[in-house]
């Protein structure tokens, strides 16, 4: 489910932006906002926080993401399951191909580890496992990024936007 994936991705962001015993400054809060915007397309309104500390930032981000996920599910309505399938299949297909290419390159170059007095098979297993974990994290993040940004366009609205673009090709549609 998206809530669990969002929690995993948020925890990764928190670990990177808010390491333990970090004194929260405005720069750190803005870094957190940049990460939230990049993945979830949302930002914390820092002015509304009662105080600027780790707990308030984590609580605000968690609640904001939870609300945004629910809103996105409502926006997609009856298309939700189709959109989910499409996002998962597209992302897994693309990333799996990249992963297989990486594993091929790893297999080709792993023999050189023997020259460094390391067992090539053990090194191959370690790196392949690490690459697979990275693959799973990347897939989660990408699916969430796409899910949070996808919008369903009603055919009439799409046709109007297309006609407007045809009439005024140098103006951007709003």
Task: Please name the defining characteristics of this protein.
mainly alpha, 174 residues
Care to give the gist of this entry?
This protein is mainly alpha-helical and 174 residues long.
Alpha-carbon Rg, integer: 21 Å
Oligomer: single chain
Number of helices in the DSSP assignment: 6
Q: Poorly predicted ranges (pLDDT <50, ≥5 residues)?
A: none
What is the total tally of β strands? 0
Helices and strands, in order, run as: HHHHHH
CA-to-CA gap between the ends? 33 Å
Based on CA inertia axes, which overall geometry fits? extended
Q: What can be said about the biggest beta sheet?
A: none
Question: Strand fraction band?
Answer: under 5%
Question: What would you note in describing this structure?
Answer:
By secondary structure, this protein is mainly α. Helix content is 73%, strand content 0%. It is built from six helices and no strands. It has helices at residues 2-17, 26-40, 54-76, 80-109, 120-149, 155-167. Helix 1 packs antiparallel against helix 2 (26-40), helix 2 (26-40) packs parallel to helix 3 (54-76) and helix 4 runs antiparallel to helix 5 (120-149). It is extended and about 65 Å long. The chain starts with a helix and ends in a 7-residue tail after the last helix.
What topology emerges from the helices and strands here?
Layout: H1 2-17, H2 26-40, H3 54-76, H4 80-109, H5 120-149, H6 155-167
């Amino acid at each position: 489910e998206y809530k669990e994936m969002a929690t995993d991705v948020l925890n990764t962001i928190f670990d990177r932006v808010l390491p333990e015993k970090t004194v929260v400054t405005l720069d750190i809060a803005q870094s957190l906002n940049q990460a939230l915007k990049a993945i979830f397309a949302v930002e914390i309104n820092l002015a509304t926080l009662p105080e600027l500390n780790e707990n308030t930032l984590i609580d605000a981000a968690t609640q904001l993401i939870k609300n945004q996920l629910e809103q996105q599910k409502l926006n997609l309505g009856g298309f939700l399951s189709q959109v989910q399938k499409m996002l998962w299949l597209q992302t897994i297909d693309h990333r799996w191909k990249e992963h297989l290419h990486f594993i091929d390159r790893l297999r080709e170059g792993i023999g050189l580890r023997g020259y460094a007095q390391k067992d090539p098979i053990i090194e191959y297993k370690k790196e392949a496992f690490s690459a697979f974990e990275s693959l799973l994290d990347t897939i989660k993040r990408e699916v969430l990024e796409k899910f949070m940004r996808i919008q369903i366009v009603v055919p009439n609205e799409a046709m109007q936007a297309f006609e407007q673009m045809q009439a005024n090709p140098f103006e951007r549609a709003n």
